[in-house]
């Protein structure tokens, strides 16, 4: 499986989270630009019931695109949290080791 993320490489995981956030923003910008085009320039060039049906369909999909963006952002947040938790665990283990205590 080529899409496995090694959590011990926290920099790679953090970079992946940033990439996902960037992709989510890019994706939503593209959709927003398209939506604005449909309501603006296309509206002035295309009249009638076919345009109205197309515009209604595009509008009906907006919620799905917003949810998709939100899901991508949530996944990126989970990756960020995993990085922080892993780094804290490493620090806690180091502290335990230097104090001579049990390491989990």
Order of helices and strands: HHH
Domains, number: 1
Count the E strands. Answer: 0
Distance between the termini: 30 Å
Q: What report would you give on this structure?
A:
83% of the residues lie in helices and 0% in strands. It has 104 residues and is mostly helical. The chain has one domain: Helix Hairpins (Orthogonal Bundle), CATH 1.10.287.1060. Helix 1 packs antiparallel against helix 3. The longest helix has 51 residues, at 49-99. The radius of gyration is 23 Å and the shape is rod-shaped. The two termini are 30 Å apart.
Helices and strands in order, then pairings?
Elements (H helix, E strand, L loop, with lengths): L9 H30 L1 H5 L3 H51 L5
Key features of this structure:
104 residues; mainly alpha; Helix Hairpins; 3 helices; 0% strand
Short description:
By secondary structure, the protein is mainly α.
């Amino acid at each position: 499986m080529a899409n496995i993320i090694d959590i011990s490489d926290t920099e790679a995981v953090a970079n992946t989270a940033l990439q996902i956030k960037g992709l989510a923003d890019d994706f939503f910008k593209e959709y927003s630009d398209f939506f604005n085009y449909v309501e603006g320039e296309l509206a002035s060039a295309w009249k009638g019931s076919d345009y109205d049906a197309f515009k209604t369909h595009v509008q009906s999909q907006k919620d799905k695109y917003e949810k998709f963006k939100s899901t991508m952002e949530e996944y990126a947040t989970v990756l960020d949290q995993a990085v922080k938790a892993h780094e804290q665990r490493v620090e806690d283990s180091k502290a335990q080791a230097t104090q001579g205590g049990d390491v989990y």
